[in-house]
C-alpha cells in the first residue's frame, strides 16, 4: 500500500493552511512524568494529557505514570534559547522526550512567566503536539512558536494537523472555546 496520495493531500492542505505536518508517527501508549516535577506541575501535565485525549476522541490516549523510563516529560534548567520547552527524539535510544524549561531567569528573559500554570499547560500541550507529528504553525494558535498563555487549549488548526497524521473518529473537537 502506498502512502503517496495521503502525503500529496497532506502537503496540499499544509500549503493552503499555512502549516504542515510530519509523516505519521506511531502514537505511544504511555508517558512517564518525571518525579522532579512538583505535585501542582504533575496535575497540570495530567490536565494537558486529558485535553489531547478529549479533543481527539480518545485517539491520543497516553497512560501516564511517574518515572523516567521510555517516552518521558521532564523539567530541565537550561534551554539555550527563548523557548519554554522542547520535544525531541533521543538519538541513542530513539525514544521521545519532552523537556520543560523551568529556569525562572531564562524564562523571564524570554518574557515568559514561569510561575503560571497556564504557561506550563500551553507548553505541554504544544510539545505533545510535536510528539504527535505536528510542526509549528506560522500563525497564532497552539502550535505557534510563541507562548500564548491566554489560550492554553487545543485549537482547530492543531487538531486538524493531528488528524492529518492519524485516523480521527467522528466527535473530535477543539478544547478552545471559540
Explain what the structure shows.
The chain is globular, with a radius of gyration of 16 Å. The chain has one domain (27-165): Collagenase (Catalytic Domain), CATH 3.40.390.10. The protein has helices at residues 4-17, 39-55, 104-109, 117-131, 156-165; strands spanning 30-33, 63-66, 72-76, 85-89, 96-101. β4 (85-89) and β5 (96-101) form a beta hairpin. The longest helix has 17 residues, at 39-55. The chain is built from five helices and five strands. The protein has 178 residues and is α/β, with parallel strands linked by helices. The model is unreliable at 1-24 (pLDDT under 50). 35% of the residues lie in helices and 13% in strands. It has a five-stranded mixed sheet with strand order 2-1-3-5-4, covered by helices on one side.
In the CATH scheme, the class would be Alpha Beta
How many alpha or pi helices? 5
- The beta-strand count equals 5
Instruction: List low-pLDDT spans.
Output: 1-24
CATH topology name, in short, is: Collagenase (Catalytic Domain)
Question: What order do the strands of the largest sheet run in, or round the barrel if closed?
Answer: 2-1-3-5-4
Order of helices and strands: HEHEEEEHHH
Domain module count: 1
What's the CATH architecture?
Answer: 3-Layer(aba) Sandwich
Helix content: 25-40%
Q: Look at the structure and give the mean pLDDT.
A: 74
Shape: globular
Distance between the termini: 39 Å
Q: Major sheet, described briefly?
A: 5 strands, mixed
